[in-house]
Amino acid sequence: MSDLANETQIIKTSDIVKHTKYKMPGGIHPEEYKTLSNQSPIRILSKANQLTIALSNSSHLNGELQVKIGEVICKGQTLFASSEESMTNNTHSPCNGKVLSIDKLNTGHPSGLPLAAIRIEQAIKQNSDTEKQRSHQNNQQNESWVNISPQDIINRIHRAGIVGLGGAAFPTHIKLKTSLGKVGTLIVNAMECEPYITCDDKLLQEKSSEILQGALITAKAVGAIKILFGIEDNKPEAINCLKKSISNLIDSNLNNHDNKNYTLPKIEIVIAKTKYPSGGEKQLIQLLTGLEVPQGKYPAELGMLVQNVATLYAINQAINHNENLTQRLVTITGDSVPQPGNYWIQFGTPIFHIIESLKIDCHNISHAVFGGPLMGNAISDFNVPTQKSTNCIIFDSNKKLINNNREASHSACIRCGECEFVCPVSLLPQQLFWFSQSEQWEQLEKQDLFDCIECGACTYVCPSKIPLVGYYRYAKSEIKYLNTKHKKSELAKKRFENRENRLARIKAEREEKRKKTAEARKLAAQNKEQDPDGKKSAIQAALDRVKNKKEEQS
Amino acid sequence: MNLSSPFIYNDKTTSRVMLLVCSALIPGILVSFYFFGWGTLINLVLCSIYAVSAEAFIMWLRKKPIMKALSDNSALLTGLLIGLSLPPMLPWWMSFVGVWFAIIIAKQLYGGLGFNPFNPAMVGYVLLLISFPVEMTSWLPSHEIAQQHSSFLETLQITFVGVTNDGNNLMSYRMLADGFTMATPLDESKTAFSRGLMTSEIVENSHFFSNANSWFWINISFLIGGLFLLANRVTHWQIPTAMLLSMTMTASVFYLYDDQLFLSPWLHLTMGATMLGAFFIATDPVTAATTPKGRIFYGVLIGFFIIIIRTFGGYPDAVAFSVLLLNIAVPTIDHYTKPKVYGSQKEANLNG
């Protein structure tokens, strides 16, 4: 047995790390600025007095509020419970404290519109009793996840309020549910290809075994037998840490013969060359497997599920430690930050609190961005809180985040085709630009506008500094609007036609009725002429009755 | 700041791209100056002034910001390209007509930078070539074999008034040591072929040899400039490579068929405007095909037509004609060479 074990081990360690042999088209190599924030260890940000918890990042909510204004709440308590099928997710209190208000607030939605949110006053004194109680409960509930059924794992993930932490914030339980039974390979997205962002990198360096556990849990939940960690070659420390964790896991699994009914999935680290946007879900799949997700389909079509490392960490915390998702690792970086690095930040922490506690030079900030510089959103208001999707905040004084777009109009497109060389989806960005400019919606759809992932590579390289992605966003929303409008008008047309038909029918029926009564009246008038007293007709009627009766009897 | 991502850009701007292309012309300009004297430089200065003034004039007419249009350096580049294509000592007003026609008719009337379907420099050049064929094909000989050399002042005089103080005119400077005149090697070989001479006889002529030598070095210097552009990723390899390979292949077919009736591929590559065309004219982004595959088709067809027109056409060189010919074909080429979109099931989208 031990011989066999050694043999497998030898094969496995040499097998863990691989370089991918596949390529993706296009891509850019912007300056990374990652060393700004990945040189210091992970720290915890001081707690804010007030937190603003957004209930959803879309305008429709599907679920039930669990707290009232003025209610005293404790850390991890559910604030909002979503229904299982909905796209909204559960939210929990990141702290002990009191509910101040439930209202529509600016929570940093890209549109800038206010959305439903709960404001909490944080109790600075720790209520140690409840804390202890909770942790006691946690210990009691702790059992090996190997024995939990996949459905239960997914339910627990739903209850813990876990969403995709790579930035999209798509509810994880829905992603898992739709992949259930279809997926053979779990792909872990550790590419982190955007400049500045290092939170996944640092998390892998410090918490690789937890992430690995999360990956195993997820693989079990969907029935995956293979786990691929996709990572760029600019993160050697993270790769090393992950490699160690994996070989430790394989060792312990070989020594541990308790779980005869559990087989460890095949685990590999696949290294890709650093190139933006290798971390896009579709691009990652292409880089790791050489396969393309068919247009309009999900990765499950290819038997794959992609999860971000931070999400897997959260899954591990939820299943193994019964922790709800109430904080995340956020990269705070940029040249205006005196101590750039990665911080654990409670959800709902307002930006101004981060600025104050990290002593960020507020007067010099010319750019404040949520997320990376290529796909992030500008921060318009420092009262806005951090959210589940906030993986990075950049405070920059200028220069690096060059913006030549200050002029009202950009220069003309010279059709140089740089954009075509960098498009990871092989679109023709400048053709899309021409069609967007001239509002030729049909042509745009034919040119596969909706396959654009808005990675911004085309805009990054454009020598005329045309905000191409802006044009595509405009065109996409315009087409969607026109399509709904078209559908609506079709519906209205149908309704109108139906109404016309109905009116015509009623009119015809009325006409018919009128005709009938007119005829009856005419007949009656005629009869009256021939038979003024109605005797004749009465006799005739009596005769008819007798006749009918006879016929019936015979 | 803008409110929509992305928030970073690389430092390549249109005006820098154009300036880089202009600076990549410098080796070619210096070598041309060495072989043909002041006429080259005077042409370049005149054409640049004409081009910039034409652009400013039309911007003023169109009530658009003049400095913004000039700062993209595209007019300057057009002026330089025409200046390099014109024979030295061409009368000043001819270059004026060519350049103003190029900027105003071929570029601005279509909407300005980015909207013109035809390469403006080549439109200007072709206009002059078919309007003034004699002047446009009267090249000076290489300075090694010329009977007399003109000073800066004499060149200016010929360009502006046609005659110097000593009574010399263009013809006096075109004279070779033995009293004959000679045009460009391509022109010379065309005339020689029409007189029934063999390739070997043409090449053995010592005048032809030293003239061809000067054109060889001019082409090499444009090649160096072109490689500089490729190294700086200002142009992409597809068009020049496809064009040069296609020229080689097409010329080889003829040459292998009969090496006495046709010029060798080597001569085709090193004579005339080959390298200038491959790296600076066919690669004009506005008028070239834009899809990666389309660029290859575009380059191949330009190369093919250059050899065909040089061999069978009425004019000695053909870069301008084939570039313009292919400019018309660009929309069609782009349409049929659309790359396969990620995850798309259809092989190529032909209904786009």
Strands, helices and their partners?
The complex is a heterodimer of chains A (554) and B (352).
Chain A: H1 2-16, E1 17-19, E2 43-44, E3 50-54, E4 63-65, E5 72-73, E6 78-82, E7 91-92, E8 97-105, E9 115-122, H2 128-141, H3 150-159, H4 172-179, E10 185-190, H5 199-222, E11 226-232, H6 236-255, E12 266-272, H7 281-289, E13 304-308, H8 309-321, E14 327-333, E15 341-346, H9 351-357, E16 367-370, E17 377-378, E18 392-396, H10 418-422, H11 429-437, H12 441-446, H13 457-461, H14 468-530, H15 535-553
Parallel strand pairs in A: 1-12, 2-15, 10-11, 10-13, 11-12, 14-18
Antiparallel strand pairs in A: 3-9, 4-6, 5-8, 6-7, 8-9, 14-15, 16-17, 16-18
Helix pairs in contact in A: 1-6, 3-4, 3-5, 5-6, 5-8, 11-14
Chain B: H1 14-24, H2 26-36, H3 38-61, H4 66-71, H5 74-85, H6 92-107, H7 120-131, H8 133-136, H9 152-160, H10 170-174, H11 185-194, H12 199-204, H13 206-231, H14 238-257, H15 265-270, H16 274-281, H17 292-312, H18 319-336
Helix pairs in contact in B: 1-5, 1-13, 2-3, 2-13, 3-5, 3-6, 5-6, 5-7, 6-7, 7-18, 13-16, 14-16, 14-17, 17-18
Key descriptive features of the protein:
heterodimer, A: alpha/beta, OB fold (Dihydrolipoamide Acetyltransferase, E2P), five-stranded parallel sheet, 15 helices, elongated, B: mainly alpha, 18 helices, 64% helix, 0% strand, globular
Characterization of the model:
The complex is a heterodimer of chains A (554) and B (352). Chain A has 554 residues and is an alpha/beta fold. Among the domains of chain A are: 50-123, OB fold (Dihydrolipoamide Acetyltransferase, E2P) (Beta Barrel), CATH 2.40.50.100; 341-407, no CATH class; 418-477, no CATH class. Chain A is 41% helix and 16% strand. A six-stranded mixed sheet of chain A has the order 2-15-14-18-16-17, covered by helices on one side. In chain A, strands 1-12-11-10-13 form a five-stranded parallel sheet, with helices on both faces. A four-stranded antiparallel sheet of chain A has the order 3-9-8-5, with no helix packed on it. In chain A, helix 5 links the parallel strand 10 (185-190) and strand 11 (226-232). In chain A, helix 1 runs antiparallel to helix 6 (236-255) and helix 3 packs across helix 5. The radius of gyration of chain A is 33 Å and the shape is elongated. By secondary structure, chain B is mainly α. Chain B is built from 18 helices and no strands. Chain B has helices at 14-24, 26-36, 38-61, 66-71, 74-85, 92-107, 120-131, 133-136, 152-160, 170-174, 185-194, 199-204, 206-231, 238-257, 265-270, 274-281, 292-312, 319-336. The radius of gyration of chain B is 21 Å and the shape is globular. At the A-B interface, strand 17, helix 10, helix 13 and helix 14 of A face helix 1 of B.
